[in-house]
Specification:
alpha/beta; ROK; ROK_cs; Arc Repressor Mutant, subunit A; Nucleotidyltransferase, domain 5; WH_DNA-bd_sf; ROK family protein; 5-stranded mixed beta sheet
Length: about 400
Amino acid sequence: MSPLTVGEKAGLGVPPRGALPSSPGALFQLLRDGVPRTKADLAAETGFARSTIATRVEELLASELVTPAGESTSTGGRPPATFAFNPAARCVLAVDLGGTHARIAVTNLFSEVLAEEEQELAIALGPATVLDAVCATGERLLAQTEMGHEQLIGIGIGLPGPVEFATGRPVSPPIMPGWDGFDVPGYLRQTFDVPILVDNDVNAMALGEHHLIYPDVANMMFVKIGTGIGAGIISDAQLQHGAQGAAGDLGHVAVPDGDQTPCTCGNRGCLEAVASGPAIAAYLRSQGVEVPNLSALLQLVRDGHPEAIQATRGAGRQVGAVLASCVNLLNPSVIVIGGLVSTAGEHFLAGIRETVYSRSLPLATQHLRILGTLTSGRAGMLGASALVTAHTLSAEHVNLLLAGTSAAGQGS
């Protein structure tokens, strides 16, 4: 199959377009939940003739996306065979890039990790150096899992800066020198000839947390607070990008109290300038507390240092003041707080909750939960995987995959 650009996608999570209801890709959507079904079950669910179902199942079996799953309970006579989604049929290369780190994994089609590696990798080294390291690590992990390029169905990558989702190109990223407008999918495709999806790292984290922890929550936010501050928005169970992919840029919303601290974006009083990890550390240094880096700040909080606890809780209140407006506007039922600063413990979360619940409308907070992340720093990587499977396993792209399988004799 020829690789597809992100701009050719029908849209993440959008009901399939361009795929006939009786196509194999459309039938495959019923099987993606992993529940085994017989041909009779599929005929009953779709209303299609059994001959059509039989043909489509055979096509899906040939692609290995569907596999025999044993026999169903018989009510008399020979038990009918069942079929189910085979998540081991293909794999995904999932990449989470931060300011100074990279977490890279090969996952199956259920976003279950088969092999992973975390390494120090400064995004400031530039796109060629960083992406070459990603490719080398990806090749190594594929070899570890005994998967080849022919089993790789796509690559998902989260970047720590604004990304134009339609093209996968970073746009004026503040901590990524040399990345502005760089063709990330095009560069990676020189090594991996597969669909490549690139998004902001916080969007990937939101998708990962939703996919793994809160799949039944239709409206949620993921807020990352570390060197910078950003948010990923899930609305009606869909990740929201906005018109150009800039939705969720929480860090450059002005704090309500009129703080005039200069921000790296050129404005003053942005949330990131007063409540990010470096901002908290800078404030403490101005008060005579020795805080050389973010790790030292977190250690002071864990050790019970009163000024560090007070500053961290105060930063949480600033975050909460901005989130209160988001709660009134978007009405999420869950807000997940992630990023390095969130590991400071309950002091930071307490500051957020205190302000959100006091400033938001009672109806909007009636069932609202504000929680720390439960994915242990893996949300971005898992979200990058889910980004790929949502695209490549859609009805129209499964049909394209099967067409390639039929023409070339193998899936690609």
